Amino acid sequence: MRSRRQRPAAAGRGRGALPAVTVALVGFAVLAGALPADAGGGQDWRTLLDRAATSGRDTPHQGEILWIIQAEGETHVVKVDVDQSGAGLTVRTPGQSTVRLSRDGGGLADYEEGWFMPLPAARRVPTVPSEAMAEKYEVEVVGSARLLDRPATRVEVSLRDQGTLRERLWLDDATGLLLRRESYDGDDLLRMAVYVSLDLSPPPERAEPPPEIVRLEQRTQDVEAVQPVHFGALRQAGWAVPEVLGEGYRAAGAYALSGRGGSPLQLVYADGLYTVSLFQQRGRADLSTLPPGAEPAEGLGGRAFEWPGAVPSRLVWEAGGTTYSLVGDAPPEEFRAMAGALPQAERPGVLKRVGKGLSRLWSWVSPFS
Amino acid sequence: MTEDCSSFESLLSAWLDGALTPAERARLGVHLPGCPRCRAQLDSLRVTRSLLRSSPVRVVPSDVRAVLGTTAGSSTRRLVGGPPALRVATRAAGAALAVSGFLGVTAFAVGGESEPGPGAVPVPLDVFVADHLVRTTGLPISTPAGFEVDQ
User: Fold this and answer.
1) Which domain does B103 fall in, by range?
2) Is residue B114 part of a domain?
3) Which residue in chain B is spatially nearest to A132 when comparing CA positions?
4) I want to staple A191 with a disulfide (CB 3.0 to 4.6 A). Which of A69, A274, A306, B117 is the partner?
5) Position B141 in a domain
6) With contacts defined as CB-CB under 8 Å, which chain B residues touch A286?
C-alpha cells in the first residue's frame, strides 16, 4: 500500500481523540436536547427533502462541516470545507483530494499529486422519486430547532418494517440546506455531519474551473450511459448487472467509463435514501494503487479490502477475474449484504478445485470450446 | 422512444456495422439529429459493444502452455519403441500415473479461486468515489464528501 497523503490535521486518531469527541458529542446532544420541539409547522416531508436535494447545490454558501464517524469501536473526526461559489460546489478535505460538483459536471483534484480530472455530469442519475423512499422508509417531520442560531426543521427517517431509526435531519428553514445529519442503526449513532460554521453571503462568482485547478495536470475520463435495454447483453458477457441489489436498492443508472483503470462499468443503485455505486473492472487488482488505510475485509473470500470510517464507505474485492469496487453511503450492514450478494471468490474443496481445473484445462486445449 | 422510432430500432445495430443500404442510411441520418432517444439508444449500443469486447478472453498462460507441450512430447517419446511386454506395461502404467499426477497437480493449481485475467489493473478508488458523488448529487439526501480516516 502506498502512503502518499498526509492525514488531515483535524482527523482524530483512535482513542486519543475520544475525549474531544465525547465533549463534542455531549455538546451536540445537550444542544439538541435543549432545543424546543414543536409540530414542525405541518410541513410535508416530500417538499422539505426535495428542497434539500437542490439547495446544497444551488444555494451560495461557504462553511465547515464536521464529520464524526464511529467505526470498529473508534471515533474519528474529520473537518471538511464546503464552498458553493455559484459556479459549483467544492468539497475539500484538508490533506486529501478535492471534489468539485457543478451543474455541467464536476471534477476531482489531487493537489499533492498535482492533477485534476474533469468528470462529465451529463450522465447524472435521474432523481429518485419520493415514492421509492416511502416504500422502504417511514419519514416524519418531528419538530423545530435552532442550529447556528437559525430556525430549522427536524425530520426522522426509520425503516418502515422494523421501525429502526436510520436518519435524523435538520433542514434550514430559510434555505433548505441540510445543516445537520445523523445516521443511525437503531440506537447506535454511526456518523454525524454538522455545519460548525456557515456563511450565506454570496461570494463573488469565480471563473470555472478555478485558476489553481488549471495549473494542475489535466487527466481525462469519458463517460457513456448504458441503457437498461442492453443490460441483458452485459449479463451474458459476464458482467454482474442485478436489477435490485440488497434490500430495495434498484438500478438507477449504468455508465461505461474510460481512463485510468481500463474501462470500468459503473452501476448506480438507490433506495430513495441511500445510494451505492458498483464499479467492475476486468482483471485482478493492482494492490499498489489502492489508497492508504485498507484493511482486509472478512467474509468476501480471496483478496478483499475495506476502509473503516471512510466516507463514503468502500469495499474492493476480486472474483472470477474481475475486480469489484463498491462505494456508497448505505448503512454498514446493508453495504456488506450488497457486496455479499455479488460474485465472490470461491474457496472450493480439493476435489471441486481439481475438477474445476480440469475443466479449465480442457477449455484451453479443446478446439471445440 | 416514440412510435416512429420503433421502425428505426432495428437499423441502429446495422448503422454501427456500416451495413445499411444507402436508402436506410439516409432515412436514419435524417431521423437521428432530431431524436435524442434514438441517439441515446445508439450511444448505449456502441458503449455496450465496447464493453462486450472487453469481456474476458480465455488465454492459456504461457507457463502452463509450455509445461503441457513438454509433457505431451515426453509422454509420446516414452510410449514409442518396442521393449519386452512387461517393461512396456510397467512403463505405460508408470507413465499413466505420472501423467495423472501431473494433471491432478496442474488442475489443482489452475482450479484456484482466480481466473487467469488480462493482468493487474489499477483501482482508482478516489476517482470512483468522485464518480459516485458526481452521478448521485441531487438525489434526495446528499452530503457530498470523500475522505479516509486514520486507523
Assistant:
1) 62-107
2) no
3) B140
4) A69
5) no
6) 120-123
Q: Angle at Cα A118 formed by Cα A114 and Cα A123, nearest 5°?
A: 155
Length of chain A: 369
Q: Does residue B91 sit in the same domain as residue B70?
A: yes
How many independent structural domains does chain B possess? 2
Per residue in A48-62, is it b (16+ CB within 10 Å) or e — as a string? bbbbbbebbbebbbb
Q: Are residues B71 and B34 in the same domain?
A: no
CA distance B118 to A100: 33
The proportion of chain B whose per-residue pLDDT surpasses 70, expressed as a percent, equals: 62
Q: Is residue B117 part of a domain?
A: no
Q: Is residue B135 part of a domain?
A: no
* Owner of C-alpha cell 435495454: A229
A302: Cα separation from own chain's centroid? 24
Q: Are residues B103 and B67 in the same domain?
A: yes
For residue A97, list chain B residues with Cβ-Cβ distance below 8 A.
126, 130, 146
pLDDT digits (tens, 9 = 90+) for A253-285: 898 887 766 789 999 999 988 999 999 999 889
Residues B44 and B71 occupy one common structural domain: no
CB contact under 8 A, B148 and A310: yes
Instruction: State pLDDT tens for residues A37-96.
Output: 444 456 788 888 888 877 877 788 889 999 999 988 889 998 988 888 766 777 877 777
A176-194 residue pLDDT tens: 999 999 999 988 999 999 9
- Residue A225 and residue B44: Cβ atoms within 8 Å? yes
Chain A CB contacts of B149 under 8 Å are 7, 11, 69, 71, 76, 78, 293, 308-310
- Would you say A296 and A345 are in contact if contact means Cβ atoms under 8 Å apart? no
Last residue of a domain, one of B13, B31, B54: B54
Task: Return the C-alpha torsion angle B50, B55, B61, B64, nearest 10.
Answer: -150
Is it the case that residue A243 has pLDDT exceeding 60? yes
**Beta carbons of A169 and B121 less than 8 Å apart:** no
